[in-house]
Structures are given as C-alpha cells and as structure tokens.
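Students often ask what a holo structure prediction actually looks like on paper. The answer is less mysterious than it sounds. You provide the chain, you provide the ligand, and the output is a string of discrete structure tokens encoding the 3D arrangement of the protein together with zinc ion.
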Amino acid sequence: MKMMKALVHEAAGRKNASIRMVPYPVCGDDEVVIKVMACGICKWAEINHDTEGGGGTLAKYPVITGHEFAGYIVEVGKNVTEYKIGDRVTADNAIPCGKCWYCRNGKPLLCEHFGSHGHNINGGFAQYLKIVAKNVVKLPDNLSFDEASVAEPVACAVEALDRANIKPGEEVIVSGMGPHGLILAQLCHFSSAQHSVAIGLVESRLKTLESYGVPTILAERNDASVHEAKLREMFPHGVDCIIDTSGAWPMVQSLLKFLRKGGRFVQYGSYHSSIQIENPAKFLNDLHFNNQSYVGVSCQVNNFPRAIEYMANGKCNVSTLVTHTFDLDDYFLALDTNKTDKSTLKVVIHPNGDPNKETDLS
Ligand SMILES: [Zn+2]
Ligand SMILES: [Zn+2]
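The corresponding structure tokens follow.
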C-alpha cells in the first residue's frame, strides 16, 4: 500500500498527536489529490488542536490538521475535467453540508454541519491531501506556494471586507498588526473607502504597510492619548467603520471613541475569555443610541477565487507575510516558534521538502 507522512491528531492535545506514516488518500471520482508543497500554521486553530481540552468547535478526531495549503495536482478523479496533473493550485478548505437549513437557504457560511479540511476532514500537514475538485483554485505564475498558502486568511479577510460593507467615500480604521491586520489594512486601502488607516504596535510591520501605500499610525500601549490625538487629527468627524483584528480590548475601547453615529464595528479577532466589559449595558446602549452596528466575522466560504485575484494583482501583497518555514518533521518546533518568537507572522510547513525545487509528480 502506498503510504505518506502526516501530522495526525488522535485527539486534541500534543500528547495525542504524532508525525507518522498513514495510507495515501484514495481519489474519488469528483476529487483531486494535491501534493502539498506548503501548508501554513493558523496560530489560533493549531494552538487549539495542540491544547488538551481544545480543538475548537469544528474539530473532529482523528484528523490530519492544516487548512491553509497549496501544491501540485498529482491525481484527478474520472469526472474531473477542469484540472490536470501538474497544475499548481490551492483549494478552499470549507465544505458546507449543502443539506441543512442554512445551506438550503443560500447561507453556506452559516452551515450547521460545517466541514473543514484540517479541522474535521484531513488537511494539509501531510505529503498529500484529497479534496473535491470544485474547491480547487489554480495559481497564477506570480504566486509562490508559500504565498498561496496564505489564500485562506486572505479569503477570510475578503469576508470581513464584504460584511464591513464599505461604501464610496467612507473612512475606516483597521487595528492589529498580525497577518490578518496586515491583509485587511491592504484590502481596506484598496476598497471604495476614501481614507483608511492601519493602527498597530509593531513599527516594522507598519513600515511594510507604508511601503504598499497604506497610511498607518503607531499605537501607544501605555498612553492611548498619543495615538488618539493622531486619529483625531486624521478623522476629526470619526470613521464609518472599525475592523478590529487585534483582539486587544483596551485598543477597542480606545478606537470606539472614533466610531461615527451609524458606524459599523467589525470584530475579526477573538477576545480572551478573561476580558471584562466594565458596563455591558452602557456598551450596548452606546451602540443602540448611536445607531451603530456590531458585525462578527470568523470564517469564509467561496472567497478563494477573489483572494487569489487580490494577491496576484498586488492589492494584497503577502510576500513578506511568510517569515519562517519548516519541514513537516519539525512541526512542533514550528508551532512553538510561532507561539514564542515575536518575529513570526506566518509560519509555513513544507511536507515535501523545498517547494522551489523540481518535484516528482507521479
Ligand atoms: Zn486559517
Ligand atoms: Zn449545511
């Protein structure tokens, strides 16, 4: 039997995970098999899988984790006509059930039995993965496999952009300097917004955004009045939309002062469960009396083609996002590096060695 190397979680928690040989996937008639050349660590999801008692709401074990993957097609099912062996591709990891109330009412994002490669269907921390062909997206030549592995976070950011519903002439603040903040700051800058600004704590990342033409403001952790003064100067009448990827509640409290009446607050990063909202009724009443909206965005379906377009045409530059790469054998070192080393943005695993070297497609 043909075998392959994979990171298998028997249950949540590191002690229940191992890198071992498992059977090569059997390609169904409507599926393709992808030789995975790059698979990104989604810090939040992978730490969840790595934590005993964790796993997240979607997880179902045993499973091969990893939902941000790209590689070569090495096998096509007999009903698949649009792809061929050797195509460079990524694929949407989301598999809505198609049968539940939400799916039947045209809302697959809200599916009650949401399937997801890397959470409850085998994912990309493996040498090979099989997936339905309709989820596959071909890669343009100007995107590397490492860059293409960022398509999933970009696709999620596109969902936030859709739901933020930014209209021509509007003004927007994007907060947070993790991968999602860097992606959304660019998407908002190139949206129909009149002005958008990215605010965060990491100066080098703000410089990267500035080099893409995105205006930025350095946040002051210990004295919010410093960045608030800069924001007041830039937006004397406040902004129409705030998209928070920081997950930092003090930052949100500081920024909400700038949300105009009728504005939208988009929560994109999750807040730690220990966060206490001082006066929840006041918080809600402020939204209510100011006719403001709260929008929660946490995942995506069907946004991969647009994500790849944004990445390929330079409206979402991800070339500096992949800061570290590791072989599959070093997965746990990679995850720990991602957790502890502040210089990491996206850490990407190479299950089949160097993705820039020629590879066997048999
Ligand atoms: Zn992800
Ligand atoms: Zn469904």
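Residues 151-164 form the longest helix (14 residues).
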